[in-house]
Specification:
Blueprint: H1 8-15, H2 20-32, E1 35-36, H3 37-43, H4 49-58, E2 63-69, E3 75-81, H5 100-109, E4 126-130, H6 134-137, E5 150-154, H7 155-166, H8 169-174, H9 177-181, H10 211-223, H11 228-240
Antiparallel strand pairs: 1-3, 2-3, 4-5
Helix pairs in contact: 2-4
Amino acid sequence: MKKTNLPQEVRKLLQSITNKRARVVIDHILKKGFITTADLEKKYGYNHPPRAARDVREAGIPLETFRVKDKAGRSIAAYKFGDLSKVQKNKLSGRSVLSKEFKNGLYESHKGKCFICSGTFESRYLQIDHRVPYEIAGDDVSIERNLDDFMLLCGSCNRAKSWSCEHCVNWKEKKEPNICKQCYWGSPENYLHIALKSIRRLDIHWEAHEIKSYERIKAIANLEKTPLPDFVKKVLDKNTST
């Protein structure tokens, strides 16, 4: 593939990216036309090439994934620029840093709980997360921060949300913020779907004095040889049916 020839204005936009991994990917593509996962692993020492590609996409630069043959004849992934007329300029400056005061405000409003599972955590174990993923809407630093646009998630829920979002059609293709706002991962208190699938989900934590209740429920489920989630659903259905 030939060296990428781009208008000077587009090159300036690309050169404004400061993220280190994204910078490596962009510079290599500008020079060679594309970059492979083997390049990222062997030449640049990145053990997780898709993360480097994601950094570029999160910076607002469209990338296309395609397949090439490596020196051994194996099919591997490679990345090249997509339609650069679709550069998302609101992402070019990268993710903005949110202040400690902002996180404290979220922590107080959420009463120290993860917004997804409602588990109680110390502030240091909770991570600020966009309700609408950065990949979809970016960060408009000109707009005053609104607590309602963010949530605090524990590490486990943040990883689960990331996996679900990254496998959603809206993430891959549509990129419509309103779809995210109607999703469990964006509005767990009132949602219509989970990653565009007709699913309902309930995360429950038993803490402190509640643990005895959990152990009783688990023991009964084991006696009935029923998986605990199925047992809980059965009990709820029995006691709420009219």
